[in-house]
Design a protein that fits this description.
This protein has two helices and four strands. With about 100 residues, the chain is α+β, with helices and mostly antiparallel strands.
Length: about 100
């Protein structure tokens, strides 16, 4: 069994309130869940309106499948024009760790 996680640090564009922030972050979270069947949530910077932290986790029996899903998720977030991807932290774990 393999577990992979991604932690995204995002800078949001022209956002002036937490309500506007939610209107940008929620669709990203929903699309990741829908397209890739991953566990994902806003995990950091909840009280800042121009920053967002999104955490994502995937469990798989195959390391190749796991890294493929993580790569696609990272490309999806990086390709969103309304956010600037400041950093991504990737962690891979196996049941042998």
């Amino acid at each position: 069994m393999y577990v992979g996680t991604l932690s995204f640090d995002l800078l949001l564009g022209d956002v002036h309130s937490l309500k506007e922030k939610r209107s940008l972050v929620r669709p990203i979270v929903a699309e990741l869940q829908r397209k890739y069947a991953v566990s994902v949530a806003e995990t950091d910077h909840q009280n800042l309106h121009r920053r967002a932290g999104i955490g994502l986790a995937v469990v798989s029996g195959d390391m190749g499948h796991l890294t493929g899903v993580l790569d696609r998720c990272e490309r999806l977030v990086a390709g969103r024009p309304e956010v600037e991807l400041l950093s991504v932290r990737r962690r891979l774990h196996s049941d042998e760790d």
